[in-house]
Amino acid sequence: MTIVSNLFQRRRLLVVCAATLALHLAAIDWAGNHLGSSVPRTSPHPPSVMTAQLRLTLPKRVESAPLVDVKPLAQDAPRPRARRPPPPAPLPPPPESAPATDALTAIAATPVLASEDSTSASASGKSASQAQAGAGQAQTGTPPAPAEAPTPAPAVPAEVAPQGTRRYKVHLPPSAKFDMAVARVDADGTKWTGSASMTWHTDGSRYDASVEAGVSLLVTRVNLLVLRSEGVIDDYGIAPVRVTEKRTRRAETATHFNRDQGTITFSASERSYPLLTGAQDKATVPFQLGGIGRADVNQFGGDIDLQVGDEKEATIFRFQLVGEEELDTKMGKVVAWHLTRPPKPGTYSSRLDIWLAPGMNWYPVQIRNTEASGALTTQTVSNITMTDSGK
Fold this sequence. Notes:
Blueprint: H1 2-36, H2 102-109, H3 118-140, E1 176-185, E2 191-202, E3 206-217, E4 220-234, E5 237-247, E6 253-258, E7 263-266, E8 269-274, E9 280-281, H4 285-295, E10 304-309, E11 314-329, E12 332-341, E13 351-357, E14 363-370, E15 376-386
Parallel strand pairs: 9-10
Antiparallel strand pairs: 1-2, 1-15, 2-3, 3-4, 4-5, 5-6, 6-7, 7-8, 10-11, 11-12, 12-13, 13-14, 14-15
């Protein structure tokens, strides 16, 4: 009886242990399944990168006044010379009974000289005419002819000072280097590809900017354009001092912004233009526009007028906001504001389009030039490298 009861107790103990173990295993499996579902599982595919870009509300359009051309400064006009008075009429021969006196002979023989001083010439001519008329009256008894009034010198029109362009608030973007992909289509359909680089460096008081663009020909690259600009930063943004331009098979030219004299002069031309507020060159225009948008986007509600010094002239570029667009670049999709400068008959015949990225410090991310012939050159950013200011 004792043996049977002991076996029964041992069997019951084994059953209880087995049941307990089974329950524990079931609980562990259940907990593992439920807890493991909250842990992300490793996917064989790489995660997709999603970028969120800031989208700003476009400003309300404000109509601008008609654009006024900037005329070149007139060259110094030569001083008008005094008009020589007509020679006096010969005196009639005096009667034999009244010989001419030595004084009248001296006056009649006195030459009338042309002089730069029109007043003295007129006075001397007038006195000679009066003296001769008096002598004629005394000898012939005829009344003297009225003295001819001196002809006034033509007035030289004064140079009219042109009005300055609209002034803008500017917060310039930080220094950076831009790698650009260049695509060109000639008027006949020929396609070219190449690359370009832009640099923008500023320490807050001075700046330097450059643009180098070229095309690829088989295994070589040909530079089409090299622009270099340097100057200062003032209350109205970028203030160029000197910019040089070098094109293929052409000599280098320079444009000088003479701020002490208030003029813009050129190495390739003898003309000069008045220097207006906020004047730029072709290398600085994209960054000045970016600084205007960075300071206050509402400024793009109206047209942006910038005087731009080129190789031989300085004209007003009027930029208008087209709208917001999304560009496909090697950096991904970029939200940009599209600005355009339409052609202006009689001044410039090409169309210039610039895309600025508000989410990227308002940097220029695409530039396109459409020539009058239909040739199209587009530069699209492929990489932007932030650099230390002033370096």
